[in-house]
């Protein structure tokens, strides 16, 4: 039998979302706040993002600096951060089986916060055919290899994707002393800032192949090249010994799913309302498990935001009722994806499948427009936000709320 | 020649005889790198073999031998049983004949079940199935551990394993074969050709024109562990004139397999997946188990079966040459491996090899990769004795640092990360290394060699 231990709040995942929730809860004098992470170091994805872009405008930080800051803040506030502890499965509605070097343990909590993050879909899940050579990475593996372990990658890399994470991957390839042969996206344009795309293409001489798909990996033993096909039918082989599949994030929803929490079909993460309650009372979800990729700042904001609802739950509050929040094509998903009239403050993040120019976002319930918002420009794989200032108009007894796009 | 599952089994069988000096040659850098590593991982009953063939006999015998061996060595096996699902009237009409054939192949206990019983057993099956033949004896097994157990036991009992040793030419000098290999000449009195896809090439080099290997490619999709609850049996199609068709089967690692395709090729290195192949598999999978297609794909692989123009195995002794060919061992080779080994040992003895006295082999105990049995992270007593077994490195597959360390220092250590994956499942899970790839590579690279 494993040991049983009680805490007040158990947070699974010591990334920005989990750590921010822990810091806020511990600051609010919740006595036993525990964050567990299966990695050997706390901090989540920023640990291996050696680039800047974290922190604030006045205090810019690199990923590792930001990770250390969050861990320090949580610990100083009084939260316990444990690493090398894996959550295996649920032991009850608010209890988890865990294992670590110290053996198995069952941890019972009064509230559980899932902050389990996301991963990029690997080559296999993207069904890219070909041989199975070495030299195939996701950005996550690449960044850890280069920035955490100082490992060598190949000499010539193709980066699949042209969104922000893809440009970060290209920078990591270059930091490892290798060349980026090309970046490839099946979309008609890069999905990053104009400046960043121009710097890679013109400043660093990295060709960007748009409307182009990787159709086959070549090589026995080590990758020797990738075959690509342009939408117009032209094909080519790009000789390379490394390929990085970037983007296409999916939530690490194993615990959520094992626990039978309701999942959103769009994000594939747990369904949450604007206070980040999941379908199970006392269980909350924050960060990338909700929307598979957003900035660390967004994840941390959600962690801190959820702390408020966790405190209410600890005080005995019932989770509010709500209605589903859905998107209609060409929108892909929205998070949070349930709405109650009390939801305030946390903006919704959503994604589009196609570029949008000068459109209108309509929020509609039962044929009634709740909100209208002008949308100047939106690109696939880039953050699109919807302010939450219309939620008080939602009828909690009405039908689902839908977010629609109309061109102006 | 050939350290696949068949060659390793033969080496292990011969290792019972301490007077024999045995070399096991492998062209690649690890055992089981050819057909043995990429199959459907099923321990067959042989219910549908052609009665009277050598294959039917060796599969039947081998199934019992391997089931016993698996229990003794800790190779994960799950006797889930198979359902041959009939999707149309013709297939339904064929089932009684298959039941009869199973009887003739000494595979008792099969039963015909109607649509209600079928959907009760497999509620996620796609609509339109008319019935099925239940074959209770079919099991799923770990092919990698099996091959590794044979080779490990052979090596521990005196067999010399020569990896990276490609045989270039075979000559004869007095009463010896002289092999010119990539690592120098090797002289042997007796020669066993278990070279799988290349068995025909070697056989020709020795002057025989008995068969031609036409590699038959099988592409397979491995679905996420979340798919495991969707299927309880090995779901087989009813064999038709067009071939055996694709199956949906659980794996002992807790995943679900969909495949294989059957493509006759002429390139023995063409272990690549294709867009058409994957599309065809998904189309067929959607009909068999619609919900399967909503799950993530964890891995895609392709293997080549050593198909020949003959219906049966091509196992032939050439006593005058002190040579035995073990060719045309197709998808049933894993199941039959121990029986093939016993059969080949007898052939060698009949051909004049004096094996000397026989001794028992030191038993081996293999690390468990099967989800139906306790894995190290689930064993408190093991973690208490060595906390490395509680230190999870590969999160998706819950592989601990202790297991990786053990594999890297084992009798036959892996030559690379793929070999490590087959021994521990590290990097074999849904993230394919996103979380753990770099950490696992570090552990692999820091082992002194």
Question: Could you list some keywords that capture this structure?
Answer:
heterodimer, A: 408 residues, alpha/beta, 5-stranded parallel sheet, 8 helices, 29 strands, 21% helix, 34% strand, B: 449 residues, alpha+beta, 4-stranded mixed sheet
How is this structure best described in words?
The complex is a heterodimer of chains A (408) and B (449). Helices cover 21% and strands 34% of the residues of chain A. Chain A has helices at 16-27, 63-77, 139-148, 164-175, 194-203, 254-258, 288-291, 296-314, and strands at residues 3-6, 9-12, 33-36, 54-55, 60-61, 80-82, 86-92, 95-100, 103-108, 111-114, 118-120, 136-138, 156-160, 179-184, 208-209, 212-218, 225-230, 235-239, 242-245, 249-251, 283-285, 323-327, 331-335, 338-339, 348-352, 356-365, 368-378, 384-386, 401-407. In chain B, 31% of the residues lie in helices and 22% in strands. In chain B, strands 13, 15, 16, 17 and 18 form a five-stranded antiparallel β-sheet that branches. Chain B has a four-stranded mixed β-sheet with strand order 5-6-4-14. A three-stranded antiparallel β-sheet of chain B has the order 2-7-3, with helices on one face. In chain B, a hairpin with a 2-residue loop joins strand 9 and strand 10. In chain B, helix 1 (5-14) packs parallel to helix 5, helix 1 (5-14) packs across helix 8 and helix 2 (54-73) crosses helix 8 (333-350). Chain B is globular, with a radius of gyration of 22 Å. The A-B interface holds A 2, 38-40, 84, 86, 88, 99-104, 119-125, 127, 129-132, 134, 137-138, 140-141, 144-145, 148-149, 151, 215-216, 220, 250, 257 and B 222, 226, 269, 271-275, 277-278, 296-301, 377-378, 380, 383-384, 387-388, 390-392, 395, 398, 416-418, 430-435, 437-439, 441-442, 445.
């Amino acid at each position: 039998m494993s040991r049983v231990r009680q805490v007040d709040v158990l947070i699974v995942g010591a990334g920005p979302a989990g750590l921010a929730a822990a810091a806020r809860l511990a600051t609010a004098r919740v006595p036993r706040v525990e964050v567990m992470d299966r990695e050997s170091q706390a901090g989540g994805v920023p640990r291996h993002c050696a680039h800047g872009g974290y922190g604030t405008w006045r205090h810019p930080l690199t990923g590792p600096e930001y990770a250390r800051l969050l861990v320090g803040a949580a610990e100083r506030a009084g939260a316990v951060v444990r690493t090398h502890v894996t959550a295996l499965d649920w032991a009850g509605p608010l209890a988890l089986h865990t294992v670590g070097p110290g053996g198995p343990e069952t941890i019972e909590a009064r509230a559980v916060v899932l902050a389990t993050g996301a991963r990029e879909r690997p080559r296999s899940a993207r069904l890219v055919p070909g041989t199975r050579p070495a030299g195939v990475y996701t950005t996550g593996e690449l960044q850890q290899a280069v920035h955490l372990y100082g490992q060598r990658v190949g000499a010539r890399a193709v980066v699949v994707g042209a969104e922000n994470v893809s440009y970060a991957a290209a920078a990591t390839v270059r930091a490892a002393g290798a060349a980026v042969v090309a970046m490839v996206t099946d979309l008609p344009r890069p999905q990053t800032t104009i400046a960043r795309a121009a710097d890679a293409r013109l400043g660093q001489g990295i060709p960007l192949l748009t409307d182009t798909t990787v159709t086959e990996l070549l090589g026995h033993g080590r990758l020797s090249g990738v075959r690509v096909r342009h939408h117009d039918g032209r094909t080519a082989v790009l000789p390379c010994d490394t390929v990085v599949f970037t983007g296409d994030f999916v939530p690490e929803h194993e615990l959520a799913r094992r626990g039978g929490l309701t999942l959103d079909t769009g994000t594939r993460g747990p369904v949450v309302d604007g206070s980040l309650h999941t379908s199970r009372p006392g269980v909350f979800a924050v960060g990338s498990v909700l929307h598979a990729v957003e900035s660390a700042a967004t994840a941390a904001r959600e962690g801190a935001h959820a702390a408020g609802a966790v405190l209410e739950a600890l005080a005995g509050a019932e989770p509010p009722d709500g209605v589903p929040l859905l998107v209609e094509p060409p929108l892909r998903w929205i998070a949070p994806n349930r709405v109650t009239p009390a939801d305030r403050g946390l903006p919704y993040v959503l994604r589009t499948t196609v570029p949008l120019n000068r459109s209108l976002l309509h929020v509609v319930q039962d044929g009634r427009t709740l909100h209208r918002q002008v949308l100047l420009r939106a690109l696939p794989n880039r953050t699109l936000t919807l302010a939450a200032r219309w939620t008080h108009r939602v009828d909690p007894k009405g039908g689902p709320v839908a977010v629609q796009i109309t061109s102006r | 020649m050939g350290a696949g599952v068949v060659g390793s089994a033969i080496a292990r069988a011969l290792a019972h005889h301490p007077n024999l000096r045995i070399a096991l040659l492998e062209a690649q850098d690890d055992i089981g790198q050819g057909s043995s590593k990429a199959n459907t991982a099923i321990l067959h009953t042989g219910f549908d073999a052609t009665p009277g063939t050598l294959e039917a006999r060796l599969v039947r015998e081998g199934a019992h031998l391997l089931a016993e061996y698996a229990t003794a060595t800790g190779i994960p096996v799950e006797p889930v049983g198979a359902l041959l699902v009939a999707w149309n009237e013709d297939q339904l009409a064929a089932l009684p004949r298959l039941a009869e054939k199973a009887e003739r192949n000494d595979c008792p206990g099969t039963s015909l079940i109607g649509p209600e019983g079928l959907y009760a057993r497999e509620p996620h099956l796609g609509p339109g199935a008319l019935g099925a033949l239940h074959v209770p004896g079919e099991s799923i097994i770990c092919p990698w551990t099996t091959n590794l157990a044979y080779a490990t036991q052979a090596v521990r009992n005196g067999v010399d394993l020569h990896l990276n040793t490609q045989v270039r030419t075979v000559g004869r000098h007095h009463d010896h074969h002289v092999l010119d290999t990539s690592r120098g000449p090797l002289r042997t009195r007796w020669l066993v050709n278990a070279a799988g896809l290349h068995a025909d090439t070697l056989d020709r080099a020795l002057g025989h024109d008995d068969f031609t290997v036409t590699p038959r490619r099988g592409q397979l999709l491995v679905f996420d562990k979340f798919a495991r609850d969707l299927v309880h049996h090995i779901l087989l199609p009813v064999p038709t004139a067009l071939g055996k068709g694709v199956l949906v089967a659980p794996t002992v690692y807790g995943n679900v397999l969909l495949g294989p395709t059957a493509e006759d090729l002429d390139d023995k290195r063409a272990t690549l997946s294709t867009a058409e192949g994957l599309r065809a598999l998904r189309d067929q999978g959607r009909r068999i188990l619609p919900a399967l297609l909503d799950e993530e794909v964890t891995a895609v692989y392709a293997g080549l079966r050593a198909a020949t123009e003959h219906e049966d195995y091509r196992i032939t002794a050439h006593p005058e040459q002190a040579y035995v060919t073990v060719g045309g061992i197709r998808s049933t080779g894993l199941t039959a491996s121990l029986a093939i080994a016993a059969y080949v040992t007898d052939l060698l003895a009949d051909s004049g090899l004096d094996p000397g006295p026989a001794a028992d082999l030191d038993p081996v105990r293999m690390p468990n990769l099967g989800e139906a049995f306790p894995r190290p992270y689930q064993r408190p007593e093991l973690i208490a004795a060595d906390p490395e077994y509680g230190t999870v490195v590969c999160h998706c597959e819950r592989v601990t640092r202790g297991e990786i360390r053990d594999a890297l220092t084992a009798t036959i250590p892996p030559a690379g990360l793929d070999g490590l994956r087959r021994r521990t499942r590290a990097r074999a899970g849904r993230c394919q290394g996103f979380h753990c790839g770099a950490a696992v590579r570090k552990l692999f690279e820091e082992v002194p060699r």
